[in-house]
């Protein structure tokens, strides 16, 4: 089922990323792949997957995503952790001049489908996607409609609705 673009976009989130990135169409990201304080580091499969997501987003959005070797030069930082508060399995947090994305490692370096969905979902937030109509558990939509739903019904990447929403924000 297709979902209205306005139901899954946040001008605020997208606008903040636009400011963080210097309004030049280049978004820098950093992977905490070696582990940092209170993080696990990432496996090669997880790092490779994230790079593939950003490569796909290059084509969808018209933005240019560049990996940096230092978090001091990034607009989006990504961390793999062993736990978050309560049942939370992923979170995107706005900091003073960047987004911080964390997700819970489920199987010690393996990349499960659900983990891939969480990573893409959180990257979606940083780019301006939001939960459908502000209701992540709303019964009308699942992850095959938009990666921004919490109702996991499978995952194959950004849906047609997600792609249209990202293009509306960035093209």
Question: Can you describe this structure?
Answer:
- The chain is built from 4 helices and 5 strands.
- It has 171 residues and is α/β, with parallel strands linked by helices.
- The chain has one domain: Collagenase (Catalytic Domain), CATH 3.40.390.10.
- The protein has a 5-stranded mixed sheet.
- The chain is globular, with a radius of gyration of 15 Å.
- The protein starts with 10 loop residues before the first helix and ends with a helix.
- The model has no long low-confidence stretch (mean pLDDT 93).
Please give the structural blueprint:
Blueprint: H1 11-20, E1 26-31, H2 44-61, E2 64-67, E3 76-81, E4 90-94, E5 99-104, H3 113-127, H4 160-170
Parallel strand pairs: 1-2, 1-3, 3-5
Antiparallel strand pairs: 4-5
Short key terms for the protein model shown above:
171 residues; Collagenase (Catalytic Domain); alpha/beta; 16% strand; 4 helices
Task: Describe this structure in a few short sentences.
With about 170 residues, the chain is of the alpha/beta class.
Fourth-tier CATH superfamily name: Collagenase (Catalytic Domain)
Task: Please state the CA-atom Rg, rounded to the nearest Å.
Answer: 15 Å
Strand order of the largest sheet: 2-1-3-5-4
Helix content: 25-40%
Oligomer: single chain
Separate helix tally: 4
Which outline best applies? globular
Whole-number average pLDDT?
93
CATH architecture: 3-Layer(aba) Sandwich
By DSSP, the count of extended strands is 5
Class computed from helices, strands and strand pairing: alpha/beta
Low-confidence stretches: none
How many independent structural domains? Answer: 1
Q: In the CATH hierarchy, what is the class? A: Alpha Beta
Specify the biggest β-sheet.
Answer: 5 strands, mixed
């Amino acid at each position: 089922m297709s979902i209205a673009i306005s139901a899954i976009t946040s001008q605020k989130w997208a606008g903040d990323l636009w400011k963080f990135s210097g309004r030049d169409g280049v978004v820098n990201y950093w992977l905490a792949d070696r582990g940092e304080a209170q993080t696990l580091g990432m496996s090669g499969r997880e790092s490779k997957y994230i790079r593939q997501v950003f490569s796909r987003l290059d084509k969808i959005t018209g933005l240019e995503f560049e990996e940096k070797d230092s978090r001091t030069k990034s607009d989006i930082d990504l961390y793999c952790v062993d736990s978050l508060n309560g049942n939370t399995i992923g979170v995107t947090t706005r900091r003073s001049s960047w987004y911080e994305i964390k997700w819970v490692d489920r199987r010690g370096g393996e990349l499960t489908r659900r983990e891939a969905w969480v990573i893409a979902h959180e990257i979606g937030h940083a780019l301006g996607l939001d939960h459908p109509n502000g209701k992540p558990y709303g019964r009308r939509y699942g992850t095959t409609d938009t990666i921004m739903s919490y109702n996991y019904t499978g995952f194959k990447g950004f849906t047609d609705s997600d792609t249209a929403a990202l293009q509306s924000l960035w093209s």
